[in-house]
Specification:
The protein is of the alpha+beta class and 315 residues long. It is 39% helix and 24% strand. It folds into two domains: 21-136 and 308-312, Gcn5-related N-acetyltransferase (GNAT) (Aminopeptidase); 138-284, Gcn5-related N-acetyltransferase (GNAT) (Aminopeptidase, 3-Layer(aba) Sandwich), CATH 3.40.630.30.
Length: 315
């Protein structure tokens, strides 16, 4: 008698597919532990930046096999970030390559720092091509140097602080703790965007919006903040958080350019009060803006954390 039954394996493994969705505040509990396990010095791998810049980059995420997958959109189209988690690198990379194929995207991997590129080359040697992404290199400083501003090269920074203290003898640094502190910083931020001549209208607007998201969600994001008050008015404020065991990241720094030394003193005081005990300070990238690059270089970074863009190698 003919047997027409079709026998299936005891366990049927469906092909893995990634289901991406927007990032919500509640996802911090899922994403933070993954980033902590990797200890990347890159600020792109913080929940705060993913959430605060989500409106611009349309960032979405997926989880599969204990691994976090990130996808976003910029001027080059849809891009991916390096998967992070328990899945072997080769398997994780193949999943995002599959996602790109199925959706008709060219495969582009961004925010690739050197240790990630080494992992990619070990997992799939010779299959990818990397080009530098200078506008996204991150500026890493020794905390001690930013705090003490010692040496001839930083004499001008000390002069700016001395000038600020002379002009505003009753100045004070205060931590962001209460809703009133947050409201004061939000009011200052609104005045800053109204009165600061833009170097790049779109870039400045998005910078303002991301800072506003961080302030409005300050407690839920669990970040740190501080501000400088002079003549009963907030002259500058800064926001940041621990990045790794030895590195602290400054996400936001805003000051009124017309107040001499305001930027310099919030830089120093924020590190002294909120980043004590951290060896390195990550002050993020310059996004290709010449004035911002000049300002960051004027503090003489200890190193630049290189970023690369990865695409498929040409056959």
């Amino acid at each position: 008698m003919e047997n027409n039954h079709v026998y299936l394996p005891e366990v049927y493994q469906r092909p893995r597919m990634l289901t991406f969705r927007p990032i919500q505040l509640s996802d911090k509990a899922v994403i933070d532990p993954v980033f902590r396990s990797k200890s990347y010095m890159s600020t792109d791998f913080t929940f705060t930046n993913l959430y605060a810049w989500q409106a611009l980059f349309k960032t979405v995420f997926a989880t599969e096999g204990g691994t976090l997958f990130l996808r976003f959109t910029d001027e080059d189209g849809v891009c991916y970030m390096m998967p992070a988690g328990k899945m072997p690198d080769r398997e994780a990379l193949e999943l995002i390559m599959q996602d790109a194929r199925e959706n008709g995207f060219p495969f582009i991997l961004k925010a690739v720092i050197p240790q990630m590129w080494e992992s990619i080359e070990r997992a799939m040697p010779g299959q990818f091509h990397l080009v530098p992404d200078r506008m996204n290199y991150e500026y890493i400083y020794l905390s001690e140097k930013l705090l003490n501003l010692s040496g001839k090269k930083l004499q001008s920074k000390r002069n700016h602080i001395n000038r600020f203290k002379a002009d505003h003898p009753e100045w004070e640094y205060l931590p962001v703790r209460t809703d009133a502190d947050i409201a004061g910083c939000l009011a200052m931020l609104d005045e800053w965007i109204r009165t600061t001549p833009p170097q790049d209208d779109a870039s400045q607007r998005h910078d303002y919006l991301s800072a506003r998201v961080m302030l409005e969600n300050f407690h839920r994001l669990q970040i740190r903040g501080g501000y400088i008050r002079a003549e009963r008015k907030i002259a500058a404020f800064s926001l940041g958080e621990p990045l790794t065991e030895d590195t602290f990241v400054v996400h936001v720094e805003k000051a009124f350019a017309g107040i001499t030394g305001a930027y310099t003193i919030i830089n120093q005081q924020f590190i002294e009060h909120e980043a004590a005990g951290y060896t390195y300070i990550n002050r993020e990238e310059d996004v290709g803006l010449e004035n911002l690059r000049k300002a960051k270089m004027s503090y003489y970074p200890e190193t630049l954390l290189e970023h690369g863009i990865v695409t498929l190698a040409q056959p």
